[in-house]
Each structure stands twice: as structure tokens, then as C-alpha cells.
Design a protein that fits this description.
mainly alpha; 3 helices
Length: 69
């Protein structure tokens, strides 16, 4: 399931360094997904996956804070 989410919904971050992801990036992600008629339950699942990736980056000190939370 996560592989499908990454392949279908996270293409915008392929060329973006993890330390360049900001709250504004997350908000743009949410608005773009809503424009593409993504359902709210799926959007919640995507944000959970996105948040877990960012949490991992914080834990490994790649970034200072999690912009998804």
C-alpha cells in the first residue's frame, strides 16, 4: 500500500531535498491532492505516511523538525 502511495502521490518530492520540505510544501501537497479529487480518508493515509518519513528524518537528524505535524 505504501509503495502505491509513494508512486502515485509523492512525485513532487522526487527532486526535493528533505531539508527543503516546509509547512508550505505540505500545505501545497494537501491542496494539490484535493484538486485531484483525492478522498479525505486517502488524504489522511497519505499524510500519515508523509509524517512517518519526516519523523524518521528528524530521528536521524537529517532535519530539525517535522513539517507535517
Amino acid at each position: 500500500m505504501y509503495k502505491s502511495h509513494v508512486e502515485n502521490h509523492f512525485d513532487f518530492v522526487n527532486d526535493l531535498k528533505i531539508n527543503r520540505v516546509t509547512v508550505a510544501t505540505v500545505e501545497k501537497f494537501i491542496s494539490d491532492r484535493r484538486k485531484h479529487k483525492v478522498s479525505l480518508p486517502l488524504l489522511r493515509k497519505l499524510l500519515i505516511a508523509f509524517g512517518q518519513v519526516m519523523k524518521y528524518a528528524v530521528r536521524h537528524r537529517l532535519i530539525d523538525h517535522n513539517p507535517v505535524c
